[in-house]
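User: Hi! I have a protein structure encoded as tokens and I'd like to know what sequence might fold into it. I'm fairly new to this, so please keep things simple.
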């Protein structure tokens, strides 16, 4: 894994925003995998800003988000689908039919997960997948466990993960869903290129274990060591903790 530190969150967002937009120019039909959370907020703001300034055309870009809560409709506040609409999609004008998303209100959640893996395959696979990392080492919602699931699946969220997501529900933990759908480890590792972004000292232990620990299901992100094309982008406050 290549690892690079940037002086600030803003500098990291600017660098990755540049990479993504240059890639779209080169490959207008880019299939982009995307995360939600606090970490990508600066990236999405930067992509919105640069796309408007440079008139970048996203009309052929396809997106697939990593995960979604169970029991929250796509248009409901708190859903990751609504988060993406607000933070990125409406600004850069991804075509609605090009937005791949898990539906946490599907009546058959197993079938929904299978549909998602098939849709990714039908799109030709993910060219570039942007990931965050949980403080517990999760990627997507693949939580530390004795065994990890390969394909898109239903998962029970860990207590720290629910607590970290309370911010999207007015700080009210009782409103955070207990379950989610997430791309599995093989779905993630099948992406042709992966960029993992992490900022802030609270992620230092997870990033250290991902980079320097063994490959273990206790730190799902450590499986990225098996992938030939992973770039890890950190801010300096986190990188300082690794030294
Ligand atoms: P965060 O989440 O960006 O809100 O810290 C990252 C993650 O849990 O993958």
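Assistant: Happy to help. Inverse folding works backwards from shape to sequence: for each of the 243 positions I chose a residue that suits the local structure. Here it is:
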């Amino acid at each position: 894994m290549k690892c690079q530190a940037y002086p600030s969150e803003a500098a990291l967002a600017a660098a990755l925003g540049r990479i993504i937009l240059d890639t779209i120019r080169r490959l207008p039909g880019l299939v982009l995998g995307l995360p939600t959370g606090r970490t990508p907020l600066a990236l999405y703001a930067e992509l919105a800003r640069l796309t408007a300034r440079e008139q970048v055309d996203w009309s052929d870009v396809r997106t697939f988000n990593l995960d979604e809560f169970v029991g929250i409709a796509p248009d409901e506040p708190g859903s990751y689908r609504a988060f993406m609409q607000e933070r990125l999609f409406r600004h850069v004008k991804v075509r609605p039919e090009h937005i791949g998303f898990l539906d946490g209100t599907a009546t058959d959640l197993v079938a929904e997960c299978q549909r998602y893996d098939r849709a990714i395959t039908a799109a030709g696979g993910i060219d570039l997948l942007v990931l965050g990392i949980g403080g517990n080492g999760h990627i997507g919602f693949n939580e530390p466990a004795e065994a990890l699931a390969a394909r898109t699946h239903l998962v029970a969220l860990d207590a720290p993960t629910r607590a970290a997501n309370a911010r999207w529900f007015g700080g009210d933990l009782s409103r955070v869903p207990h379950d989610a759908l997430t791309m599995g480890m093989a779905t993630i590792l099948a992406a042709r290129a992966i960029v993992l972004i992490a900022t802030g000292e609270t992620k230092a232990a997870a990033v250290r274990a991902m980079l320097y620990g063994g490959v273990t299901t206790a730190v799902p992100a450590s499986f990225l060591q098996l992938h030939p094309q992973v770039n890890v982008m950190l801010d300096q406050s986190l990188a300082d903790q690794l030294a």
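A useful reference point when you look it over: The pocket of 2-phosphoglycolic acid is lined by residues 35, 37-39, 132-134, 164 (CB under 6 Å). Feel free to ask if any position seems puzzling.
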